[in-house]
Structures are given as C-alpha cells and as structure tokens.
Amino acid sequence: MITVAIVDDQPDMRAALREQLVGLGFDVVGEAADGNGAVSLARAAAPDVILMDVRMPGRDGISATATINDERLTSRVLVLTTFDDDAVVAEALGAGAAGFWLKNSGPESLASAIRHVAAGEAVLDAAVAPRVFACFAQNRSRGESAGLALLTPRERDVLELLCRGLTNAEIGAALFVGEATAKTHVSRVIAKLEVRDRVQAVVHAFEHGFGAHLPRD
C-alpha cells in the first residue's frame, strides 16, 4: 500500500484530502501544517509521497522540499497548487519536487498522480505546465546546454512534448510510436541532460531557453 503524508496549513484541506485518499486505498501516515513538519515526517515516517502545499506560515514548502532532497530522504514530493502559484511552484520544482498537481483536481486524478510519483515517475499537470515553466524561461541562461546539444531531432520532439506536460502514452500517440518506445526516448533525454526525472528535464529545458516558444495558456 502506498503511504502518503499531507502537508497543508488549512485543517479543512488536510481533512478532505485524508478522507479522499483513505477512500481510494492509500495509507495516510501523517499530517503537518508547515515545512518543518514536512521535513520531520520525511525523516520519521518516510512516506512514499508527501503532498506539499507551497505557501504556509513559518517554513514554506519550497524550503522543505529542498531539504528533503538535499538530505536524500526517500519521500518524494508532489506539490499541490492553484493557478496563481505558477512562479512559486516553479521554484519548488527547481528545489527537487517530483511534480505538481492542481488542488481542484478530482480524487481519481490526484490518486493517479500519487501512484505515478510513488512508482518513481514525475508528473506535470498539463493544464498549467506551460505557464509554470515559462517562469524558468524568463531567467534562462544564454545558449543551449551541452546536454541539449546532444539530443537527436526525435529526442528534441520528445522534450517539447514533455514541456507540454504529456505522458509517455500521449507522447507515443503524438509521435505515432508505442508507449514503450516513447518511454525509451524519454529515458534517453533524461540521461543526456543528466537530470533526475522528467520534471527536472523540463526545468532544464526552460532554464536554457528550449521551449520558450511554447504557447502559454
């Protein structure tokens, strides 16, 4: 059973999430109201996934996410956000979050995201991915990185689709290849960029100017 911790400063939100997740078969092993509590949960309970709010009194979710990753704790962070949090969530992804999802997503949608993150994957909510990563493009470095220069034309197509928030299955459909082939392409992109996962590949892409032409929602 996948273990989950909920970090949010609003008790009503934590209670609603707990009820949803328990009903969907997850084991909620702890709750916290700020970033300090999140780090303590990661150290003590080591949940598979931490649902992390960003803006909280005291220590925020960005700082907590950075510490969890810097200490190489096993918990993976899934940031829950709203549309007006784009810039802040971009910072959280840069700090090492495994992805982000919208707070107003339905229970089944959130459950799917949690399962992917627990399986070692990374998730981007397609509804806001272009807007979030536009924040990286605003402060991008000059020129392409060495990793981007190594990508084949097909791998560049794959990276663009990653920047749009597509899953492996959706990438495969867009490129008229099977999901397994799409997954192989994604893995090669991640390896060449020398990043941890697909989210960090997109962060890298936007920081170096790739994808700056993508449409903004």
Could you explain how this protein is built, in words?
The protein has helices at 11-23, 35-44, 61-70, 86-94, 107-118, 129-138, 146-150, 153-163, 168-175, 179-193, 198-207; strands at residues 3-7, 27-32, 49-52, 76-81, 99-102, 123-124. The protein is α/β, with parallel strands linked by helices. It has 2 domains: 3-125, 3-Layer(aba) Sandwich (Rossmann fold); 134-207, Winged helix-like DNA-binding domain superfamily/Winged helix DNA-binding domain (Arc Repressor Mutant, subunit A, Orthogonal Bundle). The chain has a 6-stranded parallel beta sheet, with helices on both faces. Residues 213-217 have low confidence and may be disordered.
Short account of what is shown:
This protein is α/β, with parallel strands linked by helices and 217 residues long. The chain is built from eleven helices and six strands.
Key structural traits:
217 residues, alpha/beta, Rossmann fold, Arc Repressor Mutant, subunit A, 2 domains, 6-stranded parallel β-sheet, 11 helices, 6 strands, disordered C terminus
